[in-house]
Design brief:
The strands form 3 sheets. This protein has an 18-stranded antiparallel barrel. The protein has about 425 residues and is mainly beta. The chain has 3 helices and 22 strands. A hairpin with a 2-residue loop joins strand 14 and strand 15. The longest helix is centred in the N-terminal third of the chain and has 18 residues. The radius of gyration is 22 Å and the shape is globular. The two termini are about 30 Å apart. Keywords: Signal, Transport. GO terms for molecular function: porin activity. InterPro entries: OM_porin_bac (IPR005318), Porin_dom_sf (IPR023614). This is Outer membrane porin, OprD family. It comes from Acinetobacter baumannii.
Length: about 425
């Protein structure tokens, strides 16, 4: 398996050869301090992930269960001194199975073979070269982008990664410009780079995801407007708009955001004619120890929310551990409460509870679908001693739907993460 990882990444030697020459030149001839070393950070995260699903009614399988141990080495260099700074980032990812029966699939903690047998282990090596001039950065290679129109999913054993390039510029005050293109996608339960496709329509693939975005902040950064455009070539295109407002009120903070996404087919329309609109809004009030949030979300058009396979729906207001409530024509709302136990001298203990309800769903299995879910998470991070940075998260979710064979289930997850700083 390790040999396969290395073979798949031979192309990155070209990046490293160019990078090595520039690094040597700049480090030898630069007169200023060596920010390449000073701003470099590296850490190894150990992630132990247990997950089980107990399917409820009309089920075609009873349970899905897996337990993995993962190693995530994350290296981020600074930039070489000089007018053109150059740097290197890489992720070394490896996960192996502790437990996972062949017939208990569906957790997406491990890759699944064609005969529905879970792999014993998997991994990837992601390398990206970056260059910086003034306040503009160009990144080329493989990494985990977190963009409102393309969010890598890091909710299982290993994070999702994409291969491509991205330009980010902050040359103008309060304005950030994003431009880029991705060619390949390796989802969270895969070790291979493949062409991308629209979620649930794998027969139509594309090797180009193009995007451009603007984020503008004002009013002392309490307000932000975001405008983005993206396209999965010859499959879909999507426009994204969001406004965020933050209002400090004495010891509390009132925050409101509203977003709108509009997607249609693009180019050759390999996945057919598409039509989806998503309107959402969240209002939250927070103080030092707790936050209460209310969200509303409306899907419009004949199709579900448009996104690249494997990506997170976190941009949507009602995205959760088990559902994004993004089915065709679905209306949903959420009430959520976050509590920090600092009030009881336990500032590193946190509790989250939320309830989400959705109805009005129209898809191939129902013309009046409903779903509702309850989720709770309790987390604790150790801040001192030899176990410093050990994080423990326990999650329980229950979701019920009135359609489908495996749509209603109870979901339990236990996640232990321990970060070892190599240097910082």
């Amino acid at each position: 398996m390790i040999e396969n990882i290395l073979n798949k990444r031979i192309s990155y030697l070209r990046y490293l050869a160019v990078l090595g020459g520039i690094l040597f030149h700049n480090s030898v001839y630069a007169d200023s301090k060596n920010t390449f070393i000073e701003d470099t950070s590296a850490e190894i995260k150990l992630r132990n992930f247990y997950m089980s699903r107990d399917y409820q009614k009309n089920r075609v399988r009873d349970t899905g269960e897996a337990w993995t141990q993962s190693f995530i080495a994350d290296f981020k260099s600074g930039y070489t001194p000089g007018k053109i700074g150059v740097g290197l980032d890489f992720l070394a990812l490896y996960s192996f199975k502790i437990r996972g029966e062949d017939n208990e699939i569906g957790t997406q903690l491990l890759p699944v073979k064609e005969n529905n047998i879970q792999e014993d282990d998997f991994g990837r090596l992601a390398i990206a070269v970056k260059g910086k001039v003034s306040n503009t950065e160009l990144k080329v290679g493989e990494w985990s982008p977190v963009l409102p129109i393309l969010r890598s999913d890091d909710g299982r054993s290993l994070p999702q990664t994409f291969e491509g390039w991205q330009l980010t510029s902050s040359e103008f005050k309060n304005l950030k410009v994003h431009l880029g293109q991705f060619y390949k996608n390796s989802p969270r339960d895969s070790e291979r780079m493949k062409d991308m496709y629209l979620t649930s329509r794998s027969s139509a693939t594309s090797d180009q995801f193009n995007f451009i975005g603007l984020d503008y902040s004002f009013n002392e950064k309490n307000d932000q407007i975001s405008i983005w455009y993206s396209q999965l070539k010859d499959i879909y295109q999507q426009n994204y708009f969001q406004y965020t407002k933050s209002i400090p009120i004495d010891s509390m903070n009132l925050k409101w955001n509203v977003g709108y996404l509009y997607g249609t087919e693009h180019g050759d329309a390999k996945a057919g004619q598409l039509d989806n609109q998503a309107l959402y809004s969240t209002l939250s009030l927070a103080n030092k120890y707790q936050k209460v949030s209310f969200s509303a979300q409306q899907m419009m058009g004949k199709d579900e929310f448009l996104r690249v396979n494997g990506t997170s729906g976190f941009t949507l207001a009602n995205d959760s551990f088990t559902s994004s409530y993004d089915n065709p024509k679905e209306s949903s709302w959420q009430i959520r409460h976050d509590f920090n136990f600092g009030k009881f001298n336990l500032p590193d203990l946190n509790l989250m509870n939320r309830y989400i309800y959705g109805n009005g769903i129209e898809n191939s299995q129902t013309k009046d679908g409903r779903e509702h879910g309850f989720e709770t998470e309790i987390s604790y991070t150790i801040k001192t001693g030899w176990l410093k940075s050990l994080s423990i998260k326990a999650r329980h979710s229950e979701i019920r739907r009135n359609w489908g064979n495996t749509n209603s289930f109870n979901d339990n997850r236990l996640i232990l993460s321990y970060t070892i700083p190599v240097f910082n």
